[in-house]
Amino acid sequence: MKKVPRIYLDNASTTPIEPKVLDAMLPYLKEKYGNPSSLHFEGRIAKSAIEKSREKIAQIINSEKEEIIFTSGGTESDNLAILGIARANANKGKHIIVSSIEHKAVLDSYKKLEKEGFSVTYLDVNKNGIVSLDHLKSSLKPDTILVSVMYANNEIGTIQPIKKISKIIKDSKTSNPIFHSDACQAVGALLIDIKELGVDALTISSSKIYGPKGVGCLYLNKEIKIEPIIFGGGQENGIRSGTENVASIVGFSEALSISEKKRISENKRLTKLRDYFLSKIIKEIKDISLNGDKKNRLPNNINISIQKVEGESLLLLLDECGISCSTGSACSSNNLKPSHVLTKIGVSRELAHCSIRFTLGRYTKKADLDYTVNILSKCVDKIRKMSPTK
Amino acid sequence: MKNKNNKKNCCKDGEDWIYSREVREHFFFPKNILFNEINYKADGLGSVGSPACGDVMNVWIKVNKKTGRIKECKWRTFGCASAIASASMMSVMATENGGMDLKTAQNLKPEQIVERLGGLPDRKFHCSVLGHEALREAVLDYLKHAKK
């Protein structure tokens, strides 16, 4: 591979680690190696580190300390919330509701529950990816025990009206379901005060907020019954067994704390950069459509379809020029199906093939975007010249 | 046929591409693209695939009437890296060594293209190799017109 400077515009996939986060972690990978469950000195040091981290996170999201369950990341938190809550509350009903554009970690958990005899309602979304509140209202039944709607979508960046959804659920006279939201993409960009949002369970991942990979947490209201999905030593109040990933938990709490401090200023800065980037792309390249909502959108997300330019080809050409991004094209997925999110919001198969996602991050500079538009325009030209005219 | 992986590159950091070296070469530097067909006097034209499936391919051939062999083979395609590479490879195969005779061209198998490409990921095999079909269409188109 040629040595070219890299411009990383795939921050929704994962983010680089913030140096301060790594510094906070290192002692726990070196001299502070104890098992938090041990009663001796080394164990107590480790225990104290995870409890401090728990407290830090609880403070940020306005929950109680006991309501934070550390996990191996977003996928496990989603799995735990959905499988654990549904199974533990099945005596109250077996109906569950989910938006149709959730992350696979959520959708596949619901599929698993369908096999266990639960019935699932998949909520419609409009052409911008916003969940239909009317469909939610009409779907709530006396036996509805769980509703899952993501805070912001990973592919198209659409932000869901979480407060409105929670109000509908709380006001419902027919049912009293638990409300879970996957906030993996929202953290660092949007408010995550669980009381203000009105959620009962919230998924947070470290790897999207400049923290280490393989760690995250589930906020779970302490009134809610849950069953574990991992069994063993009884850590995390018996909800999540396994020796705690101490260094990563410390890093995660540090990363969340930095993200929260930077949230408002970063939101502003990225929104400006995003709009600049998009307007420049539209100016330079013909036949482009934006996927997702223009306004209710994460400040770092651009998802566009570029006519007659297949996404995987474009991704690989950009990669060769040092630019990293992502695509919803079927050609790049393992099952050769186009992105379910793009399909659900009504993007044709043809245009889904032409989708490309750029997600900006904390280290993205305006000059990177100018460079990217320039290269993008050349790559698009190259591919279009190879494309049949009809 | 079992697809070969590109073992040579498979352990170098950041270089273990999902595609073989040959696919890379033909994707980044495709051969025999026809950028503009307006003044191109083709003897046969083939067109296969559908944009909804992700892949469309047009192939234009010129035939040496004396030898009955393909002397030029040009193409354009919409598709992923392996679709582009397989089109490019097909065009090279059709024209190398004095050109393919029409019967061989009609019977070109996708496996032959994939083998020359050093293999493709299994899931890519069926959807992205259209070159042989487009070439067959182009030959049939030529034969149809040659009869008249």
Give a short overview.
Chain A has 390 residues and is an alpha/beta fold. Chain A has helices at residues 19-29, 41-61, 74-88, 104-115, 133-139, 162-171, 194-197, 246-284, 311-320, 340-344, 349-353, 366-386, and strands at residues 7-8, 68-71, 95-99, 119-123, 144-148, 178-182, 201-205, 216-220, 288-290, 301-306, 323-324, 355-359.
Structure description:
- The complex is a heterodimer of chains A (390) and B (148).
- Chain A has 390 residues and is α/β, with parallel strands linked by helices.
- Chain A has two domains: 7-15 and 263-386, Aspartate Aminotransferase, domain 1 (Alpha-Beta Complex), CATH 3.90.1150; 19-258, Aspartate Aminotransferase, domain 2 (3-Layer(aba) Sandwich), CATH 3.40.640.10.
- Chain A is built from twelve helices and twelve strands.
- Chain A has helices spanning 19-29, 41-61, 74-88, 104-115, 133-139, 162-171, 194-197, 246-284, 311-320, 340-344, 349-353, 366-386; strands spanning 7-8, 68-71, 95-99, 119-123, 144-148, 178-182, 201-205, 216-220, 288-290, 301-306, 323-324, 355-359.
- In chain A, α6 links the parallel β5 and β6 (178-182).
- The mean pLDDT of chain A is 96.
- Chain B has 148 residues and is α+β, with helices and mostly antiparallel strands.
- Chain B is built from six helices and three strands.
- Chain B has helices spanning 21-28, 81-95, 102-106, 110-116, 125-128, 131-147; strands at 44-50, 55-64, 69-78.
- Chain B has a three-stranded antiparallel beta sheet.
- In chain B, a hairpin with a 4-residue loop joins β1 and β2 (55-64).
- In chain B, α1 crosses α2.
- Chain B is globular, with a radius of gyration of 16 Å.
- Residues 1-11 of chain B have low confidence and may be disordered.
- Chain A binds chain B through residues 1, 308, 310, 312-313, 316-317, 320, 329-332, 334-336, 348-350, 353, 385-389, and chain B through 14-15, 27-28, 30, 33, 35, 47, 51-54, 56-58, 76-81, 83-84, 123-124, 127-128.
